Amino acid sequence: MKKNYFLFFVAFGINFLMAQSCPPNALNVGDQVFFVDSSNSLNCFEMPNTITIEGSTYSGIQCDTNSAIYELDMGGTEASDLDVFDVDFGGGLICSYNNGTLPIKDFEFLYKKLKLYPNPLNKGNSINLSFGLPEGTEVSIYNVMGKLISRQHISGHNLKEIKTSNLLEGIYLIRISTEGVSFNRRIAVVQ
């Protein structure tokens, strides 16, 4: 009998040590969900291949020690409330997220992954902005004198094409703003 208790406690202890925990921060932009842990303690081996939100399946597309990104599977429905949602990681682990926004330091980390290409840009071509951005993101283009050239509102796109046919040869500043946080990137337009 003692042997059975011992085996039970060993099995339970190993299961407890291997158990997945809820990622501390999540951002749901509809077709993508971002989990961020800027302390570098996200374990990709613990993250499942798929998660479920309100019955819709999201598949993992990227994972590292800081973040995991899941994309809504074809035919799935976006969550009805992007700010308050429950994520089913499988195995009985359900994590609740309220006010689905990221702390500024986590948003800054995700921004570092933002890709703006091509750069330099040939005159008349478009810029591609690659990254799922939160609702209400604004992309503004300024010349070197600080004059606003273009402003576009985007929401939750993984890839956004920004028209630049009105830009002359030179250096421009692109400002990406959301929820009181702004980031700048420079681009060059050449002949």
Automatic annotation (TrEMBL):
This protein's UniProt keywords:
Signal
**InterPro entries, alphabetized:** Secre_tail
Its signal peptide is 1-19
The protein depicted here goes by the name Putative secreted protein (Por secretion system target)
What region holds the Secretion system C-terminal sorting domain? 116-187
One Pfam family, short name: Por_Secre_tail
Q: Which domain of life is it from?
A: Bacteria
